[in-house]
DNA sequence: TTTGTCTGCCC
DNA sequence: ATTCTGC
DNA sequence: GCAGAATGGGCAGACAAA
C-alpha cells in the first residue's frame, strides 16, 4: 500500500489566500477547535492524551483504504439500482436528452435544447437528480475521452479580463458534459479563492456565467445559489439544517476516519471544507463514481432542505454522504463549505450582481462593449435586486428580456421584501454632525428602539406580510401586529396598499413602557396564537416605501414621513410613530437632550436621517466625499442613515477583564487565538468567573502578540482547568491569568450560561451583549480587574433606566 | 414524557 | 450585532 | 468606502436520546 504522509500528495491545500500556507502540524499538537464543527463535547473529554495529528491520521488511513473501498463500491452499486428504479426512470421520461451523459459516448445531443430556455427551466427543480447515471457495461473504454474533457477543465482561466475570455473556445469540448458539471463550478471557486483581487473575482464569475449561458442555461440559477451560500431567497424559509454534527458524522462514514482523527484534521486546517478534502483524499475507490452536475448538487441541497420530521436528520446525513462520495478532489472541499453555507471565496452578493450584469451585457453586446454600458447594466441589476431580491426572478428576467428591461420583467412586488436601508456607526454627536453635512442641513433624529426590525406589506385585498431585517417572513410571529393593523383602524380608509417599516418592541400593555430586547426574544416564533401571547409589543413605524400602488423609494424622506403620518392612525401601546425631532447641526443642545431621553426610554440611541435630497455641492465646508441620501435606495448607498449609540462613545462603560483561555480561529484567523475567554475576578476569593468570549476589536498585530505570549508549550497555557476558574466552556487551552483587557459592550445580560456574578442579581450569572476588545490595560494587574460586584452594579444601573421619575430625582440630587 | 443537542436567526 | 483588512 | 470574513449573547423550534 502506498504510504501517504499527512502533508504530502496532491492534497496539500494552498489555503490562505494571503499566501501563508496552512499551519503545518509541526509543533506537536497544533490544534484548533471550533464549536460549530465538533460540538460533541465528548470529544473534548480527554484532550490531554490525544496523540499528535500525524499518528492518528495515519492510523485512520490504514483502516480506511482497501476495506473501505470495497464497502463504498458496494454502496455505489446498491445506489445505482435504487436510482434506476426511482429517479432515473422518471428522469428518462422527463429529460430524454440528458440520459446519455454517462453512456458510452458521453455525448449529449442536447445542443439545440440548451440554447433555448424557458422560465420554468430555471425555476426551482422538482425532480431530484444527483447527476448520477447508471454506468453502462462498456464504459471502461468509452470514458476515456470524457475523462480527458474533465481534465481539460483545469486549464480554463476564468479570471482573465472578459475580452480575453472566449466561451465559444471551450464549448465544443464541454458540450459533451451537459448538464454542466459541478467540477466546472468548483474550478471557478478554486480560482476565485486563490486571489484577493476584486477585479479577478468579478472577472471569474462573469466569464463563468458567460460560459454557462452558452453551455447550459438551466444551470445558471443553480450555480448562482451555490455561489452565494444560499439555496433560495430568504423569504421562502428553506433551511438546510446541516451543521457540524451531521457533517462530522457524514465525513466519518464517507472517509472511514474516526471522529478524533477528524478533529485533529480540523484542528490542523481550521476549515471544514479542508478537512473533508483531506479526509476524502485518503479514500481510494476501485471504480470512480459518476460525476456531479451543478444542477444535481443544487437539487440535492433542496432535497436536504425539505427533509422534515422523524428520522430527517438521518436522511439529511445520507444525502450529504451521497454527494461527498461522488465528489472528487476540490469538489469535496466546496461541497462541504456549501453544506455549512460558508463558501469563503470572497463573493457573496454585490460581486455576484456585478458579474450577472456584466455577463449578460457582454453576451449581448460583445466583450468589448463600452464601459458606460457596463456601468449602467450594473446599476440596473443592483437596483432590481434591491427591489426584488430573488436570483431566480432576476436571472429569469435577464434571460427573457435582457438587462435594459429588467425593471419591467423583475419589478418591485408586494409581498416580496425589499432590501433595507442600514445605518453606519458614528462614535458620538460631533462625528455625526460632521457626517451629516453643513450647518444648513436639516435632518431627523429618531429613537433607535431595541427590538426587531419589521417591513410590512399590505395589499388591496387586506393581506399582510411581515418581514425581518434579513428578509425572512415572520408574519406568523406577530399575529397581534396583523390584528392591530386590520381591526383597529390603524390603516386609514384612503390607504389601500403599502410597504412600511418600523421596529417591533416589547412593551408593557398597560403603561406602554418599553421592554428589553431579551424579553422580546422570549416570544414564540412560529404559528403564534393571539390568545397565548405573553409578551405584548408595539410597532413603532418610521418609514413608508410604497403607498397605494406607487413606489416611494425615490421620494425624499421628508415626504415619505409626511405620507406615513397621514396614512395611519396611532393606537396607544400598539402602533405608534417613532419618537422624533427635526434638527440642524446648530441644535446641538436639543439633540443631546433627545439622545439622553432615548437612553432613558431604554432605547439604544438615535438614528439620524437626512430629510431632503442635497444637490451635489462643492462647498468647502463639507469634507464628505459621498453625500448621504434622503431617498430609500440601499442599492446606491447601503448605510445612508447614521447610528448614534451610547456604547460607541469612548466614554461609555467598559469592563476590565482577564483573558483565561482561547480557541483556535478559523479561516483568516486560523493562526491566531480566536475567540478568547474572558473573566471577572472575585477579589475576596481570587476566583476567575467567565463572562464572555471575545473575537472582535483585535488587530492582526495584537493577535500575533497574543499568540506569541500564550503559545503552546509555554508556561502560560495549560490543558487542565485551574481550580480557581469558574467556566462552563472548555477552551482549547486555559491561560495563566496575568493580563487585563478593556472590553466594551452594549448591555449587561442575564446569562443562562456564564457564572459571573451568579447569586448577586439572581441565580443566573451575567454576560454582556456585543463584547469587543478595546485595549490592553498594562497599567493594571489581574487583582485590579473588574469584580462580579461591579458587573452586577452595571446591570442594576441599566435596569433602573426607564424608571423616569427615579432618574430625574437622581439627576436633581447629583 | 422529559431532557439534551443542534441549528438558524434575532440583535 | 462589531470590527478589521485588502482593494 | 465597499465588500467580505470572523465571530459575540441568547432565544425558540425541531429532533434525538433517555
UniProtKB/TrEMBL annotation:
GO cellular component, one term: nucleus
EC nos: 6.5.1.1
Catalyzed reactions: ATP + (deoxyribonucleotide)n-3'-hydroxyl + 5'-phospho-(deoxyribonucleotide)m = (deoxyribonucleotide)n+m + AMP + diphosphate
Enzyme class: ligase
Keywords for the protein's UniProt record, in alphabetical order: ATP-binding, DNA damage, DNA recombination, DNA repair, DNA replication, Ligase, Nucleotide-binding, Nucleus
Basic and acidic residues: compositionally biased ranges: 48-59
BP GO terms, sorted: DNA biosynthetic process; DNA recombination; DNA repair; lagging strand elongation
InterPro entries: ATP-dep_DNA_ligase, DNA_ligase_ATP-dep, DNA_ligase_ATP-dep_C, DNA_ligase_ATP-dep_cent, DNA_ligase_ATP-dep_CS, DNA_ligase_ATP-dep_N, DNA_ligase_N_sf, NA-bd_OB-fold
Record keyword Nucleotidyltransferase present: no
Polar residues bias spans: 18-30
Family that this chain belongs to: Belongs to the ATP-dependent DNA ligase family.
Renumbered residue ranges of the record's region Disordered: 1-59
Protein name: DNA ligase
Sequence ranges assigned to domain ATP-dependent DNA ligase family profile in this UniProt record: 530-682
Subcellular location: Nucleus
NCBIfam families: dnl1
Domain of life: Eukaryota
Record-linked CDD domains: Adenylation_DNA_ligase_I_Euk, OBF_DNA_ligase_I
Gene Ontology molecular functions: ATP binding; DNA binding; DNA ligase (ATP) activity
Nuclease in keyword set: no
Amino acid at each position: 500500500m502506498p504510504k501517504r504522509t499527512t502533508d504530502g500528495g496532491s492534497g496539500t491545500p494552498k489555503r490562505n489566500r494571503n499566501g501563508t500556507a496552512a499551519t503545518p502540524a509541526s509543533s506537536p499538537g497544533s490544534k484548533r477547535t471550533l464549536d460549530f464543527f465538533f460540538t460533541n463535547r465528548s470529544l473534548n473529554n480527554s484532550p490531554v492524551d490525544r496523540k499528535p495529528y500525524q499518528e492518528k491520521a495515519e492510523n485512520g488511513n490504514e483502516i480506511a483504504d482497501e476495506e473501505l473501498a470495497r464497502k463504498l463500491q458496494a454502496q455505489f452499486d446498491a445506489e445505482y439500482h435504487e436510482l434506476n428504479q426511482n429517479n432515473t426512470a422518471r428522469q428518462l421520461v422527463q429529460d430524454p436528452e440528458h440520459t446519455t451523459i454517462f453512456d458510452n459516448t458521453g455525448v449529449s445531443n442536447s445542443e439545440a435544447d440548451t440554447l433555448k430556455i424557458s422560465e420554468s427551466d430555471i425555476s426551482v427543480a422538482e425532480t431530484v437528480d444527483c447527476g448520477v447515471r447508471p454506468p453502462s457495461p462498456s464504459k471502461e473504454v468509452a470514458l476515456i475521452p470524457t475523462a480527458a474533457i474533465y481534465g481539460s477543465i483545469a486549464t480554463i482561466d476564468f479570471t482573465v479580463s472578459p475580452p480575453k475570455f472566449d466561451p465559444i473556445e471551450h464549448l465544443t469540448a464541454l458540450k459533451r458534459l451537459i448538464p454542466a458539471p459541478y467540477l466546472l463550478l468548483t474550478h471557478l471557486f478554486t480560482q476565485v479563492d486563490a486571489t484577493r483581487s476584486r477585479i479577478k473575482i468579478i472577472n471569474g464569475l462573469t466569464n463563468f456565467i458567460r460560459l454557462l449561458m452558452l453551455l447550459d442555461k438551466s444551470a445558471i440559477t443553480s450555480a448562482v445559489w451555490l455561489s452565494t451560500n444560499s439555496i433560495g431567497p430568504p423569504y421562502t424559509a428553506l433551511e438546510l439544517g446541516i451543521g457540524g454534527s451531521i457533517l462530522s458524522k457524514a465525513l466519518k462514514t464517507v472517509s472511514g476516519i474516526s471522529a478524533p482523527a477528524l478533529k485533529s484534521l480540523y484542528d490542523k486546517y481550521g476549515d471544514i471544507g479542508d478537512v473533508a478534502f483531506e479526509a476524502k483524499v485518503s479514500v481510494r475507490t476501485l471504480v470512480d463514481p459518476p460525476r456531479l452536475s451543478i444542477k444535481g448538487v443544487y437539487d440535492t441541497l433542496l432535497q436536504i432542505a425539505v427533509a422534515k420530521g422523524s428520522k430527517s436528520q438521518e436522511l439529511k446525513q445520507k444525502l450529504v454522504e451521497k454527494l461527498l462520495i461522488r465528489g472528487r478532489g476540490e469538489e469535496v472541499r466546496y461541497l462541504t463549505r456549501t453544506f455549512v453555507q460558508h463558501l469563503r471565496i470572497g463573493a457573496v452578493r454585490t460581486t455576484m450582481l456585478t458579474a450577472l450584469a456584466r455577463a449578460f451585457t457582454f453576451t449581448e453586446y460583445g466583450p468589448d462593449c463600452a464601459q458606460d454600458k457596463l456601468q449602467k447594466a450594473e446599476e440596473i441589476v443592483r437596483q432590481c435586486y434591491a427591489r426584488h431580491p430573488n436570483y431566480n426572478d432576476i436571472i429569469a428576467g435577464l434571460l427573457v428580456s435582457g438587462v435594459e428591461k429588467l425593471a419591467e420583467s423583475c419589478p418591485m412586488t408586494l409581498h416580496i421584501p425589499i432590501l433595507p436601508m442600514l445605518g453606519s456607526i458614528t462614535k458620538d454627536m460631533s462625528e455625526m454632525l460632521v457626517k451629516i453635512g453643513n450647518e444648513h442641513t436639516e435632518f431627523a433624529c429618531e429613537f433607535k428602539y431595541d427590538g426587531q426590525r419589521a417591513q410590512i406589506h399590505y395589499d388591496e385585498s387586506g393581506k399582510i406580510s411581515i418581514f425581518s431585517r434579513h428578509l425572512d417572513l415572520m408574519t406568523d410571529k406577530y399575529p397581534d401586529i396583523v390584528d392591530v393593523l386590520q381591526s383597529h383602524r390603524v390603516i386609514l380608509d384612503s390607504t389601500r396598499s403599502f410597504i412600511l417599516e418600523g421596529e417591533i418592541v416589547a412593551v408593557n400593555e398597560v403603561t406602554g413602557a418599553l421592554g428589553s430586547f431579551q424579553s422580546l426574544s422570549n416570544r414564540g416564533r412560529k404559528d403564534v396564537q393571539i390568545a397565548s401571547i405573553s409578551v405584548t409589543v408595539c410597532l413603532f413605524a418610521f418609514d413608508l416605501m410604497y403607498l397605494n400602488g406607487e413606489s416611494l423609494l425615490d421620494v425624499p424622506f421628508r415626504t415619505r414621513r409626511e405620507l406615513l403620518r397621514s396614512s395611519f392612525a396611532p393606537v396607544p401601546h400598539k402602533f405608534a410613530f417613532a419618537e422624533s425631532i427635526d434638527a440642524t447641526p446648530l441644535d446641538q443642545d436639543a439633540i443631546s437632550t433627545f439622545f439622553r431621553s432615548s437612553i432613558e426610554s431604554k432605547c439604544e440611541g438615535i438614528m439620524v436621517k437626512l430629510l431632503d435630497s442635497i444637490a451635489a455641492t462643492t462647498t468647502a465646508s463639507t469634507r464628505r466625499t459621498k453625500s448621504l441620501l434622503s431617498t430609500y435606495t440601499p442599492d446606491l448607498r447601503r448605510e445612508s442613515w447614521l447610528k448614534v449609540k451610547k456604547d460607541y462613545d469612548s466614554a461609555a462603560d467598559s469592563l476590565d477583564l482577564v483573558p483565561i483561555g482561547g480557541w483556535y480561529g478559523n479561516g483568516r484567523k486560523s493562526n491566531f487565538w480566536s475567540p478568547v475567554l474572558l473573566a471577572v475576578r472575585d477579589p475576596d476569593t481570587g476566583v476567575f468567573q467567565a463572562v464572555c468570549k471575545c473575537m472582535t476589536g483585535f488587530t492582526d498585530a495584537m493577535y500575533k502578540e497574543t499568540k506569541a505570549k500564550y503559545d503552546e508549550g509555554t508556561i502560560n497555557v495549560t490543558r487542565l482547568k485551574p481550580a480557581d476558574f469558574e467556566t462552563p466552556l472548555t477552551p482549547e487551552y486555559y491561560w495563566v491569568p496575568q493580563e487585563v483587557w478593556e472590553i466594551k459592550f452594549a448591555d449587561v445580560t442575564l446569562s443562562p450560561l456564564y457564572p459571573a456574578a451568579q447569586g448577586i442579581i439572581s441565580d443566573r450569572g451575567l454576560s454582556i451583549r456585543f463584547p469587543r476588545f478595546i485595549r490592553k490595560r498594562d497599567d493594571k494587574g489581574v487583582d485590579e480587574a473588574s469584580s462580579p460586584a461591579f458587573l452586577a452594579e452595571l446591570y442594576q444601573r441599566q435596569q433602573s433606566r426607564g424608571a423616569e421619575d427615579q432618574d430625574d430625582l437622581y439627576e436633581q440630587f447629583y
